[in-house]
Amino acid sequence: MAMHGKNFLMVPGPTNVPDRVLRAMHRNSEDHRSPDFPALAKTVLENMKVVFGTTTGRSFIFPASGTGAWEAALTNTLNKGDKVISVRFGQFSHLWIDMMQRLGLDVTVFDVEWGEGLPIDMLSNCIAKDTRHEYQAICIVHNETTTGVTTDIAAVRHILDRYNHPALLMVDGVSSIASIPFKMDEWKVDLAITGSQKGFMLPAGLGMVCASPRALERSKKNNLPRVFFSFEDMIVNNDVGYFPYTPSIPLLYGLKESLAMLMEEGLENVYARHRRLATGVRKAVEAWGLKICCKNPKEYSDTVTAVVVPEGFDAQQVIRIAYEKYNLSLGAGLMKVRGRVFRIGHLGDLNELMVLATLAGTEMAMSEVGIPIKLGSGVAAASEYYMKTSKQVRGLLNNGK
Ligand code: PLP
């Protein structure tokens, strides 16, 4: 069926690509060995570090996705059989753990109910007991996109520091970096990982990693095999402005533009915008009388909200009707929460009216499925909140003027 208007792409990645970025990517292929190429490569590699919150780290861009960036972080720094710690609280932490196991790492997994965050006390006990420093790394997903739970990376760093534990801190920032605060240097993250298709507002296709000096040291001695994802090969080539293989040149131009947009807005403003838009979504869910999958309000994600449908209803139906009737793409519930939740992605190139239209489409789809919500109630709650806070944000966007 022909659809008019734009598809409302409100899944938590891939996110909408701004026109400026689309235009920047719309170009013929170029010679990636030309004398002009290093200017582009060096600009993006340098500027992405600002978004990761690092001056001391080294940045890498692989022609891959977030999954590739996971693999790069693990294979460049760990040895076969190394003991690592991780927490499984959604599909993405599950998949990363699965990768660790398939790479031959010995993973101690802390399973928590989906919707909960890190079991800080358990992690702390585990680190406290490891007086022989057998654990080589602790690998945490910052923002679990399945459940909309944001974890406290500073708290994990605090545990490692308290026990003077040298384990590497690896953080998946796929659905957090460039949308909510991420402070690689301040949190002493050793490997920070993301993909291009979320906060960076690009298509999928870049697996981005920043590695601390400590992680780079380990990469000189560790023994897990890697070829495509070799830090060493990248470093040799990046140092002179090139890549060890053919990079995606349109995506690099797109990244240059999206980094310029993030800098023009200012990261603090980017974070404030995400917080405010997310708060509006949460007000709507409250007005509907529904539950958010994330249990602890302190851990509510400002990039994605997983909405729990009442017992007896199928969230997949809401998603199907939203798509088929209203051209609105909502995120599906994954694995354990399939059918129980739908997800509203609120990250990237987004404003108030896009959220309000999404809430309207979601309300119509839910009503058609028979979920007892009052039509218009979520839209009203969110728009009231946006009106009340618009001055504050306009101020922020104008640097307080
Ligand atoms: N980690 C998180 C938190 C994600 O949300 C995703 C994808 O949505 C991934 C990892 C995997 O990234 P990709 O699909 O780019 O390989």
Automatic annotation (TrEMBL):
Domain Aminotransferase class V intervals: 9-332
Enzyme class of the recorded protein, top EC level: transferase
EC number of this enzyme: 2.6.1.44
Single GO biological process annotation from the record: glycine biosynthetic process, by transamination of glyoxylate
Cofactor(s) the protein requires to work: pyridoxal 5'-phosphate
Binding site for substrate: 343
Alphabetically ordered keywords of this record: Aminotransferase, Pyridoxal phosphate, Transferase
GO CC annotation: peroxisome
UniProt GO MF annotations: alanine-glyoxylate transaminase activity; L-serine-pyruvate transaminase activity
PTM-bearing positions, type N6-(pyridoxal phosphate)lysine: 198
UniProt-listed SUPFAM superfamilies: PLP-dependent transferases
Family the entry assigns: Belongs to the class-V pyridoxal-phosphate-dependent aminotransferase family.
Name recorded for this polypeptide: alanine--glyoxylate transaminase
High-level lineage: Eukaryota, Rhodophyta, Bangiophyceae, Galdieriales, Galdieriaceae
